[in-house]
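Please, structure for the following, as tokens.
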Amino acid sequence: MDRADARVREFHELIAQGLVNKAGEFVPTLMYPPMMQHPPITEEAFLKGYRPPKDNRFCVYAHIPFCVVQCAFCHFPNIIAASDGDKDVYLDHLEKEMNLYLDKLGVDRIKARSMLLGGGTPTHMTPAQLARFLRFFYARIDADADTQFSCDLDPLTMLGYEGRERMRLLRGAGVNRLALGVQSFSDDMLKRMGRHHNAADTLRAIGVAREMGFKLNIELIYGYPGETFEHWTDMVKQALSLDVDEIMVYRLKILPYGAKTGAITSLFDSRGNPLISNDEQIVLKSVAIDLLEGSGYAETTARFFSRTPGDYSRYSSDWMGDQHDNIGFGYYAMSMFRDRFKQNTRDMKEYCSELDAGRLPIKTGIIRTRDQQLRRNIVMPLKNRDLSKKGYRERLGVDASAVFPEKIALLKKAGLLEEDADALRPTRKGRFFLDEMTQFFYHPEFMPFKKEQYNEGPLNPFTGREAQDLKA
């Protein structure tokens, strides 16, 4: 608790210094520029002048948007309670989209650096549909035997005869890492979240994953309404007792960051709401980190704590930290290339009709400006782990210290950033406030809150020469 109280004091110091907004509210750094602020873009404009990576390898993402229910904390436009027929139609069009990309890139198969099957919940497909997907996916994706292939899923889809059949299919197809949406070990809390599984289901699912030899990451939310210090502490201890490979702890996201506003946001908007204060959120995070590290887990990438250094999401690290090109297939899927970004339509009818007409279902995106590239290539690596000075120079032809001398100096003085001959990296304090620290490099037009919502302090992200357009 002494350490947690110290973190709360640091939190208020950063509010006073202008780095954190006055109310202490939270919006995560997911990418730069933020995904909700991109204009419409055509297929032609997105692909014009694009050249694949020199090694022709991509991080590969396939999106399966189906869920049984819409969880209260989710801000993404998933497709709820779709029929098996609807899923078959979707798979028809997902295959068409992959074919179009092969044609556009001029290749027979796409070489994978790392892979993620996400959603939604990919394992809400029937075993037969999952087998079909894996067949046509691997007919178009070239992956080595040791390529990490992760899959997002929920506990219930792993249980019973069909659940085990799904797990056998995934394991046989080379999926070697599972990200399990546990969220909580409390049945009452799961009910409040709108989850359709209970704690006993979770424990059985973890047993199945262990039995079948998967690397396993379990995900826990902190700060949900009704959460208490005692309950959260007990929950982290229970997660540690399971001896899984990775544990992800992430803060409840109240302000929307996707294309849908989750039900949780209405509590934030109401008066007399039961939301946990921002100070309490800091305490819960601090306690979780202490418990995890005290049990031998270490933070390998942002919010992910692993028993061994090599157990983490290669997919996230590849595109976020190392800035490798990422290609995403599916409804609402994103592709993040080194100098551009696109997102597919969130309208399922439009997704299908565009593909039926032989067009990629691209809805929004950007070709990044020089300013956006200079900022993105410091924001995302720091958000992930650290910034390679050599990598920044090779990508942009200039040193990060020459572009952001004032901001880097201020963050170092505040004890949030450190550097050596090879890298810039967040300090322990900086990792704790990582989202706000990386937002310090945002252009003012992309800040999550308005200028007047920050104090006028030395760390106010709206002030200083480097808050304006960069010409380096």
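Residues 35-321 form a domain with the pyruvate-formate lyase- activating enzyme fold (CATH 3.80.30.20). The longest strand covers residues 110-119.
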